[in-house]
User: Fold these one by one.
Assistant:
Number 1:
Amino acid sequence: MAQLDTREKLAILADAAKYDASCASSGTAKRNSRDGKGLGSTEGMGICHAYAPDGRCISLLKILLTNSCIFDCHYCINRKSSNVRRARFTAQEVVNLTISFYKRNYIEGLFLSSGIIRSPDYTMEQLVEVARSLREDHHFRGYIHLKTIPDADPALIHQAGLHADRVSINVELPTAGGLKRLAPEKDGARIEGAMAEVKGAIADQRDAGKKYRNAPRFAPAGQSTQMIVGADAATDGDIVLRASKLYDRFSLRRVYYSAFSPIPDASAVLPLQRPPLMREHRLYQSDWLMRFYDYQPHEVVAAADAETGMLPLDIDPKLAWALKFRDRFPVDVNRAPREALLRVPGLGVKAVDAILASRRWRRLRLDDVARLTVSIAKLRPFLIAEDWRPVALAERADLKPLVAPKKKQQLELFAA
Ligand code: SF4
């Protein structure tokens, strides 16, 4: 490996980390202050944003320890057979970078992942050493998210959880068949075994924390995972069902969905084109329906096309479900229980809670609901209010064009 200075390593290893979607920042304009005017930059290497458990947005240094890897996962730019430029930080270099960025107020935490070098245990030892040194040698109180290596010794993964706020283990592909084909060296059972260990350790820590004030913390921000979307033949239905099982079995904080993006020098077994980014967005919306809107996984799957198993791209899954199950509407805003109101397309959790609070004192009219949502026109077929009752609107064959968003203007699933 050629001798690289820290800046060159940072450029390579921050770029290599961008494929991990579990804490991403995107969508902003490119700006910098290299001409001496102004302050700051949106193009800086390796800084991304994540949300803390209390809702604060925090900046993280997001890098890989190394982009060298002994595995050859087809979808990964860092795989053994890829001819990307390689770089590697020592644990001490990552510690120094984190501390110096932190002192300059660039970041509030670290997101650290790695390709596998020498062995899973050796790699995990290096990752743990970064977190240990930050916590014990430098008394670093910032946020640390460590990606763990599922094949590593469980004792090392446990050590990671003692120092990190969040640990994550990627399941990578939605189906066992996809994992076998695209990441043949990875073992689905071992990945799930590691997630089960982390879940157990988090639960033990919670129990211990109730009994002893000074019980050691273990991954207080929980564990998460990531699935690549569109690299194999898994349908949206498959992905939704897998995600729901992962939430149930491992008490995950989040499942992240990362639309597969073709990589330079890609393996021939991969699709040539990336899936539409909207597919990733629809999966995140489905995830929210299960986590915050009380939808069962089979109900979200029912919103998908029965033949292809894919969610529609032109409308959100909540509206797709409502259009398919019209017999569940209209819903009376003055009487319906919370769970029925949450099914109304365009009514978000906050709007539903505001409706429930207001209707204790008076009967709500359509205008009252309009103040809580972005577009009342789209809600009308699905609602009854004091002064409004849709006349057979829900049965109309042309209902979808009436309520579907016009070009680029999607009905807000989480409005208000
Ligand atoms: S183990 Fe991780 S870094 Fe290595 S090839 Fe597979 S996905 Fe890439």
Number 2:
Amino acid sequence: MMLGEESESADYWKKCGDEALANGVKGVVMMGAHWDCVGPSKIEVSTNPNPGKSPVAYVHPSKYVDYKLVPDLEGAQRCVSMLSADGFIASGNDKFEWIHDTYLILIRMFPGGCPPTTILSLNSRFDPHFHMKVGASLRSLRDEGYLLIGTGGAVHNLYRNRWAPMIKYSDNFAQETPPEEWAMEFRQSVEDVITNNSGPELRRAMTRLMKHPRFRDAHATDDHFMAAMFVSGAAGGEEDTGTYGQLKAETWELTNMCNSQFTIGGWSRTVPAAA
Ligand SMILES: [Fe+2]
């Protein structure tokens, strides 16, 4: 699968990682797509001091088993405190094993070593506004040099992918036909929203995407779209008005699944240069 292979997106992640290190990244805070917790207003934060990695289909273990994960226990505690102060029922989870949606990206971004990283869960109700507010709650971490990442997908419907080339030839990038109309349509709307809205307008436009007529075609389940809500919260404050997202890379796989890589904001804006 894409997270394990060379791709334009993987090259871009490496570039982001290099840039983060060059700017003295203090830590990484990530919301993925595969970990959700149950209960109204609940959110969990990874506090496992020695997290294992859950295995991933279609990626050879040699690509990830030896990579050392570095959990940011201090940062996790900060996240719990900030989220609690904003009314979330937030708690640490010291048993959580990291999942490929986050660790495979860290491996690509930081092949020389993982910076201190905190993983945030989703809430299983998949409320877009809830996840946007999680991002808003943690937005100020950016000013301290934390990199906030949401990892999911612009178009991600496993039921509508073309699996045959993957299963027969291990070729996830094969496109025997173009992506279907519903996938192209929704992918374009995601790009339009992120590149043409900023500040609180971005938050409103992102959450509104879940009412898009093609949303359910593009996402059979809501889990892979929640991270985009988190990002809109984290990069959609009043102070972010005028800072538009940029589409920096994109990789389609399994014909209909679109992985678009957006960046909102930059280091020079959010992190004061070191004296
Ligand atoms: Fe996934």
